[in-house]
Design a protein that fits this description.
Blueprint (H helix, E strand, L loop, with lengths): L2 H5 L7 H5 L2 H11 L2 H20 L8 H33 L1 H6 L9 H11 L6 H7 L6 H18 L6 H23 L6 H30 L7 H28 L8
Helix pairs in contact: 4-8, 4-9, 5-7, 5-10, 7-9, 9-12, 10-11, 11-12
Amino acid sequence: MNETEIQRLPFGEYDFERRFDERGAIEWMRENWSKSFGFCAVYVLLVFGGQRVMRGRQKLDLRGVLVLWSFSLALFSIIGAARTGWYMFYILRTSGFKQSVCDQSFYYGPVSKFWAYAFVLSKAPELGDTAFIILRKQRLIFLHWYHHITVLLYSWYSYKDQVAGGGWFMTMNYTVHALMYSYYAARAAGFRVPRPCAMVITAAQITQMAMGLAVSALVYQWMQEGHCPSYFDNIVWASLMYLSYLLLFSSFFYQSYLRNGKSSKVE
């Protein structure tokens, strides 16, 4: 989809979406994406240093702060899912599935351009999720901190190159996070959420990872035909990331809901 076609799309944009400078954002990310390694290094130090500090201290309640934090991320994810989903639906309806995978216009199209950049940047503050686990002295599993680190690194790495498949990755993640953070907010507020809700969210995460693998494979296949703009190393990293997530989330689902028959915190 070229820029002339994009300008004719029947989308209602808010002023902040219309004024967003995606070229400047992409240029900034090309120059600064490696800073994500610094964020991750600090994150790891704080995670394991924080656990050590809290070992001899009383756990903190933080219920009110957690409600506000989770609700804010839920609202952000719901809006992001609606805006990117709207754009995704339009491309699927007018151009088909293949175009939805290969189209780069998610990075600079109306509505989606702002939410694509917001998605990438949000992976840094989302690291704050772990602070609540540490300060409340809850069990911190490998899946949680591994997922946070790798999503941040891959998102920043990919945005700078505007690789194919990004539209699906962003829309799926926004949608799953809308469910997940809404669940967190409800639980933190003291509502009794039915156990199947947690199971559905984890199942949605597993589906997301399987779809991420499928999209990566299709990008590779269609890249050979000259239709999907991407890079071999990006596809390799995406495939390894999604495969590891698929295995880890499937194991989490089995351990939490099938083997022990107990509900655990969704990651």
